[in-house]
Amino acid sequence: MAKISVSIEALLKEYPFLERIEKVGELGLPGFEFLSWERRDISAIREKAEKNRLEVVTFIGSDHGALVKKEQRESALKSLEEAIKVAHQLNCSTLMIMAGGRDKNIPYEKQIQDLIEGMKEASKIAEREKVTLVIEALNTLKDHPGYLLDSAKEGFSILKEINSPNVKLLYDIYHMQIMEGNLIETISENIELIGHIHAASVPGRYEPGSGEINYANIIKKLDEIGYQGYVGLEYRATMPSMESIRETLKNFGQ
């Protein structure tokens, strides 16, 4: 069965941050994820993860869009190296990369090429440090207008140009249902380029399985094609989080 992680910044917000890690353990799930590592007690996170036998699945490894902008690239790469040091402390092997906002004064094609160049530099670090960087595509129709990368199709094309086994796509099912649809076929045809998956319903970004997306079929297909990564729960709960996550697992067929 697919491995499930919980975003402890999207869910379990009824509890203090470190207690959320314990709650993931109570659910019997193997891992959790969060967003920024800065201003977090890394030693305490590691201790909680180890005590509850949980994997720290991913967190954000770069500033929004910094790798795209040439004038910020050097500092962005240094920031990435700092994040990787934290990842090693947490035994975390995957870092999220955000493409950032589109600059209206620069042609889109130029910004995409700058992203590719920045990620090629980042990939050298990732390969050396044995971590995977996952670039996230977001929807620009509802939640993130102006975001640079809003297409999985474009994302896969970018990955082929970067040509690194340590750079993949974070395929967010919620965002890509809004932008492109054709979820199962897209995932199946590009599974080798997908390093992490996020799940939420459409519409509303609520519990997966509560809307128009048949998550049971998606999870079944992931199992069939041998997906080895995690499916991260990143959604808005409509009920107490523990109850919500258990309901989601039922919707997944687990």
Q: Could you spell the SSE succession in H and E letters?
A: EHEHEHEHEHEHHEHEH
Radius of gyration computed on alpha carbons: 17 Å
* Portion in helices: 40-55%
CATH superfamily: Divalent-metal-dependent TIM barrel enzymes
* Rough outline: globular
Largest sheet: 8 strands, parallel, barrel
CATH topology: TIM Barrel
Strand content: 15-25%
Low-pLDDT segments, ≥5 res = none
- What is the domain tally? 1
Q: Major sheet: order of its strands?
A: 1-2-3-4-5-6-7-8
Distance between the termini: 8 Å
Determine the mean pLDDT.
95
Number of strands: 8
- If helices are DSSP runs of H or I spanning 4 or more residues, what is the number of helices? 9
The CATH class: Alpha Beta
Q: Helix/strand/pairing class, anyone?
A: alpha/beta
CATH architecture: Alpha-Beta Barrel
